[in-house]
Amino acid sequence: MKGATLVSLKSFIRDEPITVVVPAFNEEKTISSVVRGIFLSVPQARVLVIDDGSTDSTAIEARGAGADVISHPLNKGNGACLKTALRFIHGGFVAVIDADGQHDPMDLPILLNKLDEYDLVVGARTFNSESGSHLRNLGNFLLTGLASFLAERRIADLTSGFRAFKHDIACKFIHVYPNGYSFPSTSTLCFVMSGYNVQFIPVEVKKRPSGTHSKLKPFSDGFRFLMFILRIITLANPNKIFFPVGLVMVLMGIVITVRNLILFEQFSSGAVLFLAGGTNTIFFGLILDQFASLRLRERD
Q1: Cα–Cα 20 to 30 A to 78, which of 97, 171, 196, 218?
Q2: Pair 148, 260 in one domain
Q3: Which residues pair with 72 in a beta bridge?
Q4: What confidence tens digit (pLDDT) does each residue in 106-149 have?
Q5: What are phi and psi of 132, to 5 degrees?
Protein backbone atom coordinates (compact mmCIF):
# COMPACT_ATOMS: atom_id res chain seq x y z
CA MET A 1 0.00 0.00 0.00
CA LYS A 2 2.77 2.46 0.88
CA GLY A 3 4.65 1.79 -2.34
CA ALA A 4 1.53 2.43 -4.39
CA THR A 5 0.94 5.66 -2.50
CA LEU A 6 4.44 6.94 -3.23
CA VAL A 7 4.02 6.25 -6.95
CA SER A 8 0.70 8.08 -6.94
CA LEU A 9 2.23 11.08 -5.18
CA LYS A 10 4.95 11.49 -7.83
CA SER A 11 2.36 11.74 -10.60
CA PHE A 12 -0.19 13.67 -8.62
CA ILE A 13 -0.26 16.97 -10.54
CA ARG A 14 -3.66 18.47 -11.32
CA ASP A 15 -5.13 21.66 -12.71
CA GLU A 16 -8.42 21.10 -10.88
CA PRO A 17 -8.68 22.64 -7.38
CA ILE A 18 -8.83 19.98 -4.66
CA THR A 19 -10.72 20.31 -1.40
CA VAL A 20 -10.55 17.69 1.34
CA VAL A 21 -13.60 17.88 3.61
CA VAL A 22 -13.41 16.60 7.19
CA PRO A 23 -16.76 16.45 9.04
CA ALA A 24 -16.02 16.58 12.76
CA PHE A 25 -18.00 16.40 15.99
CA ASN A 26 -16.03 16.42 19.25
CA GLU A 27 -12.83 15.06 17.66
CA GLU A 28 -10.25 17.25 19.41
CA LYS A 29 -8.00 14.25 20.09
CA THR A 30 -7.56 13.26 16.45
CA ILE A 31 -8.44 16.21 14.19
CA SER A 32 -5.00 17.81 14.31
CA SER A 33 -3.15 14.68 13.18
CA VAL A 34 -5.73 14.03 10.44
CA VAL A 35 -5.35 17.56 9.02
CA ARG A 36 -1.57 17.38 9.09
CA GLY A 37 -1.69 13.98 7.41
CA ILE A 38 -3.83 15.42 4.61
CA PHE A 39 -1.38 18.25 3.95
CA LEU A 40 1.47 15.74 3.91
CA SER A 41 -0.38 13.49 1.45
CA VAL A 42 -1.86 16.18 -0.82
CA PRO A 43 0.10 19.42 -0.26
CA GLN A 44 -1.86 21.40 -2.87
CA ALA A 45 -5.23 20.62 -1.33
CA ARG A 46 -7.42 22.92 0.69
CA VAL A 47 -8.53 21.29 3.93
CA LEU A 48 -12.03 22.26 5.04
CA VAL A 49 -13.16 21.07 8.47
CA ILE A 50 -16.90 21.28 9.17
CA ASP A 51 -17.24 21.56 12.94
CA ASP A 52 -20.70 20.14 13.61
CA GLY A 53 -21.55 21.92 16.85
CA SER A 54 -18.67 20.45 18.84
CA THR A 55 -18.52 21.22 22.54
CA ASP A 56 -14.76 20.66 22.80
CA SER A 57 -11.78 22.35 21.11
CA THR A 58 -12.16 20.61 17.74
CA ALA A 59 -12.35 23.90 15.81
CA ILE A 60 -9.33 25.36 17.60
CA GLU A 61 -7.22 22.25 16.97
CA ALA A 62 -8.22 22.18 13.29
CA ARG A 63 -7.31 25.82 12.72
CA GLY A 64 -4.03 25.30 14.54
CA ALA A 65 -3.18 22.51 12.10
CA GLY A 66 -3.83 24.83 9.13
CA ALA A 67 -7.38 23.91 8.09
CA ASP A 68 -10.20 26.25 7.18
CA VAL A 69 -13.11 25.74 9.57
CA ILE A 70 -16.85 26.26 9.23
CA SER A 71 -18.71 25.78 12.50
CA HIS A 72 -22.35 24.81 12.87
CA PRO A 73 -24.05 26.43 15.87
CA LEU A 74 -25.57 23.05 16.74
CA ASN A 75 -25.10 19.38 15.89
CA LYS A 76 -26.89 18.61 12.60
CA GLY A 77 -25.34 15.37 11.40
CA ASN A 78 -22.70 14.08 9.01
CA GLY A 79 -24.83 14.65 5.92
CA ALA A 80 -25.54 18.25 6.90
CA CYS A 81 -21.77 18.81 7.17
CA LEU A 82 -21.26 17.58 3.62
CA LYS A 83 -24.09 19.74 2.29
CA THR A 84 -22.56 22.78 3.97
CA ALA A 85 -19.21 21.96 2.36
CA LEU A 86 -20.72 21.43 -1.10
CA ARG A 87 -22.44 24.83 -0.92
CA PHE A 88 -19.20 26.52 0.20
CA ILE A 89 -16.86 24.90 -2.37
CA HIS A 90 -16.68 26.29 -5.90
CA GLY A 91 -15.95 23.44 -8.30
CA GLY A 92 -13.04 21.04 -8.65
CA PHE A 93 -12.46 17.70 -6.97
CA VAL A 94 -13.67 16.91 -3.45
CA ALA A 95 -12.45 14.20 -1.09
CA VAL A 96 -14.06 13.28 2.23
CA ILE A 97 -12.26 11.67 5.13
CA ASP A 98 -13.41 10.93 8.68
CA ALA A 99 -12.01 12.95 11.57
CA ASP A 100 -11.53 10.00 13.92
CA GLY A 101 -8.21 8.85 12.44
CA GLN A 102 -9.42 5.52 11.08
CA HIS A 103 -8.66 6.38 7.46
CA ASP A 104 -5.07 6.85 6.31
CA PRO A 105 -4.67 10.28 4.61
CA MET A 106 -1.85 8.76 2.52
CA ASP A 107 -4.55 6.86 0.59
CA LEU A 108 -6.10 10.10 -0.66
CA PRO A 109 -3.99 10.37 -3.85
CA ILE A 110 -5.07 6.86 -4.84
CA LEU A 111 -8.71 7.94 -4.80
CA LEU A 112 -8.16 11.36 -6.35
CA ASN A 113 -6.06 10.05 -9.25
CA LYS A 114 -9.00 7.84 -10.30
CA LEU A 115 -11.18 10.90 -10.94
CA ASP A 116 -9.64 11.11 -14.41
CA GLU A 117 -11.79 8.09 -15.34
CA TYR A 118 -14.51 8.00 -12.69
CA ASP A 119 -17.00 10.46 -11.22
CA LEU A 120 -17.04 8.89 -7.74
CA VAL A 121 -14.32 6.80 -6.11
CA VAL A 122 -15.08 5.08 -2.80
CA GLY A 123 -12.51 3.68 -0.39
CA ALA A 124 -14.02 0.25 0.22
CA ARG A 125 -13.06 -1.15 3.62
CA THR A 126 -11.57 -4.64 3.53
CA PHE A 127 -13.31 -7.14 5.79
CA ASN A 128 -10.25 -7.82 7.96
CA SER A 129 -9.67 -4.09 8.52
CA GLU A 130 -13.17 -3.21 9.71
CA SER A 131 -12.83 -2.22 13.34
CA GLY A 132 -16.52 -1.91 14.19
CA SER A 133 -18.61 -4.29 16.25
CA HIS A 134 -19.93 -7.55 14.81
CA LEU A 135 -23.47 -6.15 14.86
CA ARG A 136 -22.41 -3.07 12.92
CA ASN A 137 -20.48 -5.19 10.42
CA LEU A 138 -23.56 -7.36 9.90
CA GLY A 139 -25.69 -4.27 9.27
CA ASN A 140 -23.20 -2.94 6.72
CA PHE A 141 -23.10 -6.34 5.01
CA LEU A 142 -26.90 -6.50 4.72
CA LEU A 143 -27.17 -2.94 3.44
CA THR A 144 -24.43 -3.48 0.86
CA GLY A 145 -26.06 -6.70 -0.36
CA LEU A 146 -29.46 -5.02 -0.64
CA ALA A 147 -28.00 -2.03 -2.50
CA SER A 148 -26.14 -4.32 -4.94
CA PHE A 149 -29.38 -6.18 -5.66
CA LEU A 150 -31.34 -2.97 -6.23
CA ALA A 151 -28.65 -1.25 -8.29
CA GLU A 152 -27.99 -4.42 -10.34
CA ARG A 153 -24.24 -4.08 -9.92
CA ARG A 154 -21.78 -5.03 -7.21
CA ILE A 155 -21.32 -2.35 -4.57
CA ALA A 156 -18.26 -3.21 -2.50
CA ASP A 157 -18.95 -0.82 0.41
CA LEU A 158 -22.13 1.21 0.65
CA THR A 159 -21.48 3.07 3.93
CA SER A 160 -17.81 4.08 3.64
CA GLY A 161 -17.33 7.78 4.32
CA PHE A 162 -13.88 7.79 2.68
CA ARG A 163 -14.45 8.95 -0.90
CA ALA A 164 -13.58 11.38 -3.69
CA PHE A 165 -15.89 12.85 -6.32
CA LYS A 166 -16.45 15.67 -8.78
CA HIS A 167 -18.07 18.65 -7.12
CA ASP A 168 -20.41 19.62 -9.94
CA ILE A 169 -21.98 16.15 -10.13
CA ALA A 170 -22.36 15.76 -6.36
CA CYS A 171 -24.21 19.09 -6.17
CA LYS A 172 -26.91 17.82 -8.55
CA PHE A 173 -28.26 15.55 -5.81
CA ILE A 174 -27.88 17.87 -2.83
CA HIS A 175 -31.69 17.99 -2.43
CA VAL A 176 -31.71 14.20 -1.92
CA TYR A 177 -28.91 13.87 0.65
CA PRO A 178 -30.06 13.34 4.25
CA ASN A 179 -28.61 15.22 7.22
CA GLY A 180 -27.60 12.09 9.13
CA TYR A 181 -25.07 9.31 8.74
CA SER A 182 -26.69 7.87 5.60
CA PHE A 183 -25.04 10.46 3.33
CA PRO A 184 -22.38 8.01 2.02
CA SER A 185 -24.89 5.35 1.02
CA THR A 186 -27.40 7.83 -0.44
CA SER A 187 -24.76 9.62 -2.51
CA THR A 188 -23.36 6.31 -3.78
CA LEU A 189 -26.81 5.18 -4.94
CA CYS A 190 -27.46 8.57 -6.57
CA PHE A 191 -24.28 8.28 -8.64
CA VAL A 192 -24.84 4.62 -9.54
CA MET A 193 -28.55 4.87 -10.39
CA SER A 194 -27.95 7.99 -12.51
CA GLY A 195 -25.43 6.16 -14.67
CA TYR A 196 -22.25 7.87 -13.51
CA ASN A 197 -18.95 6.02 -13.34
CA VAL A 198 -18.32 4.71 -9.82
CA GLN A 199 -15.25 2.77 -8.70
CA PHE A 200 -14.45 1.05 -5.40
CA ILE A 201 -10.83 0.92 -4.24
CA PRO A 202 -9.89 -1.44 -1.37
CA VAL A 203 -8.45 0.41 1.63
CA GLU A 204 -7.49 -0.64 5.12
CA VAL A 205 -9.11 0.96 8.15
CA LYS A 206 -7.15 1.51 11.33
CA LYS A 207 -8.50 0.96 14.80
CA ARG A 208 -9.91 3.95 16.59
CA PRO A 209 -7.40 5.73 18.79
CA SER A 210 -7.78 4.97 22.47
CA GLY A 211 -10.26 7.22 24.21
CA THR A 212 -12.47 7.69 21.15
CA HIS A 213 -15.63 5.85 20.24
CA SER A 214 -18.13 5.64 17.40
CA LYS A 215 -21.00 8.15 17.34
CA LEU A 216 -23.31 5.35 16.16
CA LYS A 217 -25.33 3.35 18.70
CA PRO A 218 -26.29 0.00 17.10
CA PHE A 219 -29.16 -0.83 19.46
CA SER A 220 -30.80 2.59 19.76
CA ASP A 221 -30.36 3.12 16.02
CA GLY A 222 -32.17 -0.11 15.13
CA PHE A 223 -35.35 1.69 14.06
CA ARG A 224 -33.31 4.14 11.99
CA PHE A 225 -31.59 1.19 10.34
CA LEU A 226 -34.94 -0.33 9.29
CA MET A 227 -36.18 3.02 7.98
CA PHE A 228 -32.97 3.42 6.05
CA ILE A 229 -33.51 0.06 4.32
CA LEU A 230 -36.90 1.38 3.14
CA ARG A 231 -35.22 4.59 2.01
CA ILE A 232 -32.72 2.63 -0.08
CA ILE A 233 -35.50 0.63 -1.72
CA THR A 234 -37.63 3.67 -2.57
CA LEU A 235 -34.64 5.72 -3.70
CA ALA A 236 -32.90 3.14 -5.86
CA ASN A 237 -35.26 0.69 -7.55
CA PRO A 238 -38.72 0.26 -5.96
CA ASN A 239 -40.02 -2.08 -8.68
CA LYS A 240 -37.24 -4.52 -7.89
CA ILE A 241 -39.05 -5.22 -4.61
CA PHE A 242 -42.69 -4.26 -5.08
CA PHE A 243 -43.30 -5.94 -8.44
CA PRO A 244 -42.15 -9.46 -7.40
CA VAL A 245 -44.04 -9.21 -4.11
CA GLY A 246 -47.21 -8.01 -5.85
CA LEU A 247 -46.90 -10.66 -8.54
CA VAL A 248 -46.60 -13.44 -5.95
CA MET A 249 -49.70 -12.14 -4.16
CA VAL A 250 -51.69 -12.03 -7.42
CA LEU A 251 -50.62 -15.57 -8.34
CA MET A 252 -51.60 -16.81 -4.87
CA GLY A 253 -54.98 -15.12 -5.27
CA ILE A 254 -55.49 -16.83 -8.63
CA VAL A 255 -54.52 -20.24 -7.21
CA ILE A 256 -56.88 -19.82 -4.24
CA THR A 257 -59.68 -18.67 -6.55
CA VAL A 258 -59.30 -21.64 -8.90
CA ARG A 259 -59.12 -24.03 -5.96
CA ASN A 260 -62.26 -22.64 -4.33
CA LEU A 261 -64.19 -22.65 -7.60
CA ILE A 262 -63.31 -26.30 -8.22
CA LEU A 263 -63.91 -27.54 -4.68
CA PHE A 264 -66.60 -25.23 -3.34
CA GLU A 265 -67.91 -23.41 -6.45
CA GLN A 266 -67.53 -20.02 -4.77
CA PHE A 267 -65.09 -17.17 -4.25
CA SER A 268 -63.41 -16.55 -0.91
CA SER A 269 -62.51 -13.36 0.87
CA GLY A 270 -58.90 -14.58 1.13
CA ALA A 271 -58.58 -14.80 -2.65
CA VAL A 272 -60.00 -11.30 -3.08
CA LEU A 273 -57.58 -10.00 -0.45
CA PHE A 274 -54.55 -11.47 -2.23
CA LEU A 275 -55.69 -10.28 -5.67
CA ALA A 276 -56.47 -6.75 -4.50
CA GLY A 277 -53.37 -6.51 -2.32
CA GLY A 278 -51.08 -7.78 -5.06
CA THR A 279 -52.52 -5.43 -7.66
CA ASN A 280 -52.21 -2.45 -5.31
CA THR A 281 -48.63 -3.41 -4.46
CA ILE A 282 -47.65 -3.51 -8.15
CA PHE A 283 -49.21 -0.11 -8.86
CA PHE A 284 -47.72 1.33 -5.65
CA GLY A 285 -44.29 0.20 -6.86
CA LEU A 286 -44.85 1.90 -10.22
CA ILE A 287 -45.76 5.16 -8.48
CA LEU A 288 -42.70 4.97 -6.20
CA ASP A 289 -40.53 4.28 -9.24
CA GLN A 290 -41.74 7.52 -10.83
CA PHE A 291 -41.00 9.45 -7.64
CA ALA A 292 -37.53 7.88 -7.48
CA SER A 293 -36.84 9.00 -11.05
CA LEU A 294 -37.99 12.54 -10.25
CA ARG A 295 -35.83 12.70 -7.09
CA LEU A 296 -32.73 11.64 -9.01
CA ARG A 297 -33.35 14.05 -11.87
CA GLU A 298 -30.34 16.28 -12.39
CA ARG A 299 -30.72 19.96 -11.59
CA ASP A 300 -28.92 22.66 -13.58
Answers
A1: 196
A2: no
A3: 52
A4: 999 999 999 999 999 999 987 555 455 565 666 667 777 877 78
A5: -80, 180
